[in-house]
Design brief:
The structure is a homodimer.
Chain A: H1 3-12, E1 21-23, H2 25-32, H3 36-48, E2 52-57, E3 60-65, H4 67-86, E4 89-97, H5 102-107, H6 110-120, E5 129-133, H7 141-146, E6 150-152, E7 155-157, E8 160-162, E9 165-172, E10 175-182, E11 190-194, H8 199-203, E12 210-216
Antiparallel strand pairs in A: 1-3, 2-3, 4-5, 4-12, 5-11, 6-9, 7-8, 9-10, 9-12, 10-11
Helix pairs in contact in A: 2-3
Chain A binds a DNA duplex (19 and 19 nucleotides) through helix 3.
DNA sequence: ATTACTACGTTCCGAGTAG
DNA sequence: TCTACTCGGAACGTAGTAA
């Protein structure tokens, strides 16, 4: 957003009544803490760029902020809200797809089940939801690795070795779910989600559906 | 707010995980669309001003945005929200006080009563609420004059002349009220509020109480 | 490999003043 | 009176390069 406009809206727009601000450049300058000359120049630029419409009147002028100006201002506001929100949680969108079905085998191993129950407070449904991260959200995936989640130690069972994973608490629709992050994976824009119920059935989900998961950056501690 | 910080937060802070951003100046520069040198200089400045804390690591550095940075960012956001809101309505705070009691006489004159009923849809309680505008809100009062409210024409009754006034629709707590603006007043940081009930009784208001009124800038039309 | 100083071109700001 | 042009100085941005 044009910084001129930004300043102008922040410092002047409260005077915007019935669509107009009635002021002269000297007064505006005083309120903005800049010179009359700069205000004059900036108004010309803002007018050129379609952010204000001006009309000369007796002792000054009327300045009208255009819809474009308000639209961009609101957009800027939305971006800032998103940033503040994303300083606390990450939202990732993905497309549901069917994997190789390995998830359901692994997740049923006792070593995982008991630990997941300890972390998430529920026995995982024997099957995972695979999400292929949508375009534009890939940048958030590596960030998941940096979040302090809950470690599941490697273990052996039935003569097989099962690798360590990290579990992140997350929300999907109204469900508390977990995201399984394999230790030292070459991350591939796929999220594997565990839940206590069969979410495909509960929500009527099918391959190709767009799903969003929200992951708090502060995952709490592992001392329950 | 420091524009450097602003840009930095808007473009980089999504990487802020577990309190840290791990990047080198070249990468930051690429994301911000500026040179490595400028990023370096800006980080030094942001550090000096207490907005970031830096720690050199192997292949770059970790940048921590401080609470101060988030606080100012959030503050900026609040200001912007307020501006957007105040482009639609004005909120004025004032202190309740007891006037000379004239209001109750004037407002009971038939010429006013019928017109107020037409405008606000209720018969005014015979008495007004006087609000002395709080410090910091004075700037909004002259603006009220510019709002297209509802005119009450001057009239004569019982051999006396009653001047024209302008009525603005407003809200006070959950009540629809009116604000009486005398024609060509030398405005004095006092708002006179009319309502359908005795608000002092209904809300237990007493002199010295802080009250807020909200006045929409778009008052609608007078054709009901 | 990464940060940051120097030096210099460009942009921005505002006093003077014209219109 | 008010807006806006000119122009000199300050601030900003970055290539080159040192640390």
């Amino acid at each position: 957003m044009n910084p001129l406009l930004f300043d102008f809206m922040k410092k002047i727009s409260y005077r915007h009544i019935g669509g107009k601000i009635s002021l002269n450049t000297k007064e505006i300058a005083a309120e903005l803490g800049m010179s009359q000359q700069s205000v004059s120049r900036d108004l010309i630029i803002l007018e050129d760029e379609g952010y204000v419409v001006r009309k000369r009147v007796k002792r000054g002028e009327e300045v009208v902020l255009t819809d474009k100006a308000f639209r961009e201002f609101r957009n800027e506001l939305n971006i800032m809200q998103y940033i503040l929100k994303s300083s606390e949680e990450i939202e990732i969108e993905g497309i549901l797809f069917t994997g190789l079905g390995e998830g359901s085998y692994y997740i049923s191993r006792e070593g995982y089940v008991s630990r997941i129950r300890q972390i998430l407070g529920f026995v995982p449904f024997p099957g995972t939801l695979n999400l292929r991260v949508s375009e534009g959200y890939e940048i958030y995936v590596p960030i998941l690795n940096s979040i302090n989640g809950f470690e599941v130690q490697p273990f052996e069972q039935e003569g097989r070795k099962f690798g360590g994973v990290k579990i992140l608490k997350a929300r999907l629709r109204e469900e508390n779910v977990g995201i399984v992050i394999p230790e030292r994976t070459h991350y591939e824009n796929v999220l594997e989600i565990i839940s206590t119920e069969h979410l495909r059935a509960k929500y009527g989900l099918k391959d190709g559906d767009k799903i969003k998961v929200v992951i708090p950056k502060n995952q709490g501690t592992d001392n329950l």
